[in-house]
Automatic annotation (TrEMBL):
It comes from the Bacteria. The lineage of its organism: Bacteria, Bacillati, Actinomycetota, Actinomycetes, Pseudonocardiales. Residues 12-89 form the 3-octaprenyl-4-hydroxybenzoate carboxy-lyase-like N-terminal domain. It holds the Pfam family UbiD. InterPro entries: UbiD, UbiD-like_C, UbiD-like_N, UbiD_Rift_dom. This is UbiD family decarboxylase. GO terms for cellular component: cytoplasm. GO terms for molecular function: carboxy-lyase activity.
């Protein structure tokens, strides 16, 4: 399977999962229509064309991973996935992709569609593309929402892709890149600053959504996201080296840029409607890319993935992928009795984590909670980790809250961890404060010593429900 966006869009159209929208303005209308789309029962990928003020063919894509059929196809699993089949297919896949990534090392080529047009200083203008102002409270136009920011480890040369927001600055000549301190990209930049006083950086702004998935989840630090995408799709991806930095970019990407960042080169940035459902950033100074080159295909497509109050563009993708990755990681710790994990979309796929176990020994529930709350791929911005018994569906919030109300004694079953890994986008983090947070670990399992005599659940048995449903199908629906 190739990692070409245009080929994937042709498949999406044939599958009935792509909707063309013409005439929507870059100023709020694309963002508002994207929000309306995410909140439909079956959102589609939206391809915006004929944007006022821009030539036809300069397009913006959103909603690319907003339902199981779209996400399944992006992951190379076909166009017929459902929520359940996707979770089954992903039970071990993320870990296998990471393990097999070296077998699918990216291949560097000399040329590709991305190099069709190369723009250098002083002719660079990022606003020559129809960059949206996504939300009414945004402080500017954000070219980087569905982006993959490319950095290189100074000492090992390992390449990282990260999804970090980017606001256009200086009338289109530059862009800020807002990277949280604990992310691999930020670690790379800090080391370059220490060693050389500046750091190379590149960004792909329109590409196959598989890159967005890899950039937006916690791929292990020793694995390049390019190789991870290759393992995901079953074929090594092809990259071209940037003329200025040498950083690799997908050879068939739609739009990309490269340049340098320096510690003191910052611009006021934000606010921006973030995945928490609140605006973050209060014109804080954020590191700025000194853009040296812009590359693009003819009639390029900008990949948008604007966050906001869930559900938003990538909240479904993050929920599914993080749930699968955390499940796989917990199993590899040796945790017994694990039945399921769900990183709820209401918490942006990060802040509310539910773990279902079959209790096997005293302390088992707390062990599961502590492990899950601090796993490297689950710790960032986690706020509530809830452990439930195996008879509770972790994906059903009604069942989870029911378990909390009947099996959790707040005095003895809720514990709070302090000074844990938070975020600047957390609405509870005061401006200028270090981004610590706290998190509650909630044991909503039956007390282990009372499992045998705990009151029985008042509901009809599975066998009785099946029997009456068969006799009265008009009631069962």
């Amino acid at each position: 399977m190739t990692a070409d966006l245009r080929a994937w869009l042709d498949e999406a159209a044939a599958a009935g999962e792509l909707q063309d929208v013409r005439g929507a303005s870059w100023d709020l209308e694309i963002g508002a229509l994207s929000q309306v789309n995410y909140r439909r029962s079956a959102p589609k990928a939206l391809l915006f064309d004929e944007v006022p003020g821009y030539a036809a063919g300069l397009r913006v894509l959103s909603g690319s991973v907003s339902n199981p059929r779209l996400l399944g196809a992006v992951l190379g699993m076909g166009w017929d996935q459902t929520d359940d089949s996707l979770m089954t297919a992903l039970a071990t896949a993320p870990g296998e992709w990471a393990e097999r990534a070296p077998e699918f090392a990216a291949v560097t080529v000399e040329d590709g569609p991305l190099l069709s047009t190369v723009v250098s200083k002083p002719d660079i203008d990022l606003l020559s593309f129809p960059v949206p102002r996504w939300h009414e409270g945004d402080g500017g136009r954000y070219i980087g929402t569905g982006c993959a920011v490319v950095t290189r480890d100074h000492d090992t040369g390992r390449i990282n892709l990260g999804a970090y927001r980017m606001q256009v600055q200086d009338d289109g000549r530059t862009a800020t890149v807002n990277i949280e301190q604990g992310k691999h990209g930020a670690q790379h930049l800090r080391r370059w600053f220490e060693a050389e006083g500046r750091a190379p950086i590149a960004v792909t702004l329109g590409m196959h959504p598989a890159y967005l998935v890899a950039a937006g989840i916690e791929v292990p630090a020793h694995v390049s996201e390019y190789d991870y995408v290759g393992a995901m799709l079953g074929s090594p991806v092809r990259v071209v080296a940037g003329e200025v930095t040498g950083l690799p970019l997908p050879f068939d990407a739609e739009i990309a840029l490269e340049g340098w960042v320096r510690p003191g080169d910052t611009r006021p940035e934000g606010p921006f409607g973030e995945w928490t459902g609140y605006y973050s950033g209060s014109r804080d100074p954020i590191i700025t890319i000194d853009v040296e080159r812009v590359y693009h295909r003819p009639d390029p497509i900008l990949l948008g993935a604007p966050p906001g109050k869930p559900p938003h563009d990538y909240s479904y993708m993050r929920t599914v992928m993080k749930s699968a990755i955390i499940t796989d990681t917990l199993r590899k710790t040796g945790l017994q009795g694990l039945r399921g994990v769900w990183a709820h979309e209401a918490g942006g796929g990060r802040s509310l984590l539910i773990v279902s176990i079959e209790q096997r020994y005293p302390g088992h529930a707390r062990q599961a909670a502590y492990l899950a709350s601090q796993l490297p791929n689950a710790a960032y911005m986690n706020r509530f980790t809830v452990v439930v018994d195996h008879d509770v569906n972790p994906r059903d919030l009604t069942e989870v809250v029911w378990a909390m109300c009947g099996r959790c004694d707040p005095q003895s079953d809720i514990e709070v961890m302090k000074r844990t890994w938070g975020s600047r986008v957390d609405p509870l983090t005061p401006p200028g404060a270090l981004p610590f947070n706290s998190r509650a670990v909630i044991d909503a399992c039956r007390p282990y010593e009372r499992i045998a005599d705990f009151p029985a659940v008042a509901e009809s048995s599975t066998e009785l429900v099946a029997s009456v449903s068969k006799r009265w199908p008009e009631v069962a629906g």
